[in-house]
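Both lines are given unchanged directly below:

***
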Amino acid sequence: MSRMNIHQMSVQYDERQDRLALRVSNQDSQEFRLWLTRAMTLRLLPHLQASVVQLEARDPQVMATDTTAQQMLAELKRENFLSQADFSTPFVSQNLSLPLGPTPMLVTDVQLNLHTSGSLNLLFQDKSGENASGASCEFNLQAALLHGLLHLIEQALKKAQWQQPDFSQRPDNLDPASAERPAYQH
């Protein structure tokens, strides 16, 4: 198991694998490579979003008590962070050791633990059956880093086109019998 001080993060969609490649480097010149599947990402995302709202609400300078105020505060902090964050610097992976190996670890389990110190502890694990590596990787994220991770995941999700379609905008008066059927031509 590895604990780290994060230096850089990258989330890229790998079309061939149909997975997100999460890469994290630390200040000890180590890089951790993880695979996030579609199912894992879509299950994890709401928990990360809720965690950042809770972390921001714990800020002693701006105590927000009701849910709406907490969400508004988190959104303001996110916008502030994104306006100052550097997403243009490429991820540097040269001369980094790979404690989990060169092949990304398939994340099958994630444990989230909010600390009173104002950080989120994320434990990524591979428990995928007989071939499971048994490896794990632990990140401790302050709110700002969590905003950054969420932004990177959201950008990768747009590329992956994994988001569920919004059926709320669908016209209610659509008659399936009168709808034009799709035609497939060779």
Q: What stands out?
A: The beta strands are 6-14, 19-26, 31-36, 105-106, 109-115, 119-125, 136-142. The chain is about 30% helix and 25% strand.
